[in-house]
Design brief:
The chain has 289 residues and is of the alpha/beta class. It is 38% helix and 20% strand. A 7-stranded mixed sheet has the order 5-4-3-6-7-9-8, with helices on both faces. A two-stranded antiparallel sheet has the order 1-2. Helix 8 links the parallel strand 4 and strand 5. It is elongated and about 65 Å long. This is peptide chain release factor N(5)-glutamine methyltransferase.
Length: 289
Amino acid sequence: MTVQELYRQARRILEDAGLDSPDFDAGELSAHFFGLDRAGIALYGNRTPPSEAAAAFCRAVKERAARRPLQYLLGQWEFMGLTLQVGEGVLIPREDTAVLVEELAAGLRGVPAPRGLDLCAGTGAVALGLCSLLPDTEALCLELSPTALSFLKRNLDAYPQYHVQVQKADVLLPDTTLRFSHGALDFIASNPPYIEREELSQLQPEVLREPAMALDGGEDGLLFYRAIAEHWVPLLKPGGLLAVEIGETQAEQVCTIFSAHPLENIRVCQDWAGLDRVVLAVHAGAAGV
């Protein structure tokens, strides 16, 4: 079969499986296995690919139809111009998280060589994205999952021009903060687990293939926000920035949690769909954002 025939077959299979974007998925798989995206298929789709590539493509299409995430099949995903390695055991970077990175970067402009933490770092998307906007940033990624750490280290190795390091750490343990000096950081950023535990089983099939550890925010979805506010905020300098991603219905609750701590200028930012997505706050003691 030619590349074009394989693409069309894949598109039909994925459409029959009920996927939302069969054209896109089939095109991404074609680009990965054959080096031809949808535009390339229109020009060179009459080529017959090597049998090994065709077989691998067909296996991937079958797995995608069974709702294995496209990103895991490709082994990598783009985020803010960065190519990040992904796979089973690590949360897939999402476009919405760019709002967190961009808002934090805007708040740090003018701060010389800002230093801070990326809590629950996963692939390192937040820290690396921030460094792509503010290259003099120094960031330390904290991550507990051994599997996620393996992807994180590979992603950091791929961008040695950025000053990002990694440590294995449990963000929920108060003693973890003893590794750091209080009042020394310019920022703390986090895209923590924030799904309510009872809602996990209702997530899309693809999301259920992602690690529960990266999704489970406790009984009410707010477990990590409480820990960050209580144990990690003291590490910020006066005027230092706290930036967290939230679920679209959690803004009021997270703001309430933060307001009970030495944080001021608490504000909510929306994603491109107009949904609440980020909460920012300033450590009390200096002018805010």
